Amino acid sequence: MKDFIHTGYTTLPDMVTATQLQALDEVPANARQMLRLDWCRALAEQFRVQLTTAGLIGPDYIAVQCTYFEKSREHNWLVALHQDLSIPVKARVDHAALGGWSEKDGMLFVQAPVEVLEQLVALRLHIDECGPEDGALKVIPGSHLSGRLSEDGKALAKQNAEAVLCPVARGAGMAMHPLLLHASSKATGSSRRRVLHFLFGPPALPTGLEWA
Known about the structure:
The protein is of the alpha+beta class. The protein is built from five helices and twelve strands.
């Protein structure tokens, strides 16, 4: 737990069983609203308990989003160094602390205040083995402790700390703070990199916002 607080990320082995992994081979591609599916909600509850037991989230936390990502030679992309700033919400609220409204796949997103982002924890469940050739994440350890960073702040963080490559085994999870600076290269190997990206947070939001 202390390492997670300091570095902003950790790897959790064997998050799912072999039977669950086999079932996940049938996951539909390019879905952002996975929590609408019964099996995904059940999996989110399993992970909520595991993360709570590990001391990574509070006992009242809930799963608020799950997104499916698939990277391969056929579905390939480069992600520059960034922080995850947007959260899924039910409706638009006019407030000076809110901005960056957007809509993706029928869901409404807003760039949340830093005090909200600092409370969130993401869990990336890897359906496939993810090594250096599969577009594994690179992170700047400890960068989440500086809050929301400007472009100059990102450049300074990159200059002051070496990026760490985070390979993850099949069936393992990578927990991380959304404010942790992270990036990923294009896949260069022949395998797939499928990830279910869950987001957990406190049940209530400030400024009149509600989770989607």
